[in-house]
């Protein structure tokens, strides 16, 4: 980088990502969903924005609750698996970091929640930028 130069990286905001996801949900008539978050900074804003989108819509959204995972206090993933099993919706909106997504999807796979019949939408501002795809 040369002296005095500026580096600007643009990405879609969490709100923009959610707007697109809700358009997809509406298109496929997937109205029942649950929100799964980690303690990643901004998760409360994410939950609030989901509520704004659903409350201000004429679509009959069936918001089946919010599960907030604390991955640092659950290194083996037992609590995470239990919490994920308690989610009744097959559509899940996940807000987390890329590293956290690895742990969440590992727990979801171990709980039998990642095959056909389960649809996960992962939202976050720092999910891209890697050439290697997550294993799970």
Automatic annotation (TrEMBL):
GO annotation, cellular component aspect: membrane
Subcellular location, principal: membrane
Family annotation (InterPro entries): ANF_lig-bd_rcpt (IPR001828), Peripla_BP_I (IPR028082)
Keyword Amino-acid biosynthesis listed: no
Residue intervals of the Receptor ligand binding region domain: 5-123
Location(s) in or outside the cell: Membrane
Pfam families referenced in this protein's UniProt entry, alphabetically: ANF_receptor
Keyword annotations: Membrane, Transmembrane, Transmembrane helix
Gene3D superfamilies, alphabetized: 3.40.50.2300
Signal peptide feature range: none
Protein name: NMDE4 protein
Source taxonomy: Eukaryota, Metazoa, Chordata, Craniata, Vertebrata
């Amino acid at each position: 980088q040369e002296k005095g130069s500026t580096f600007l990286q643009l990405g879609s905001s969490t709100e923009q990502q959610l707007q697109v996801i809700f358009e997809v949900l509406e298109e496929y008539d997937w109205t029942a969903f649950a929100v799964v978050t980690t303690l990643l900074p901004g998760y409360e804003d994410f939950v609030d924005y989901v509520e704004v989108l659903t409350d201000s819509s004429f679509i009959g959204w069936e918001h089946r609750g919010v599960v907030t995972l604390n991955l640092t206090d659950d290194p083996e993933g037992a609590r995470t698996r239990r919490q994920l099993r308690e989610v009744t919706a097959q559509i899940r909106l996940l807000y987390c970091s890329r590293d956290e997504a690895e742990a969440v999807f590992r727990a979801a796979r171990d709980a039998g929640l990642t095959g056909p019949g389960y649809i996960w939408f992962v939202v976050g501002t720092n999910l891209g930028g890697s050439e290697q795809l997550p294993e799970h």
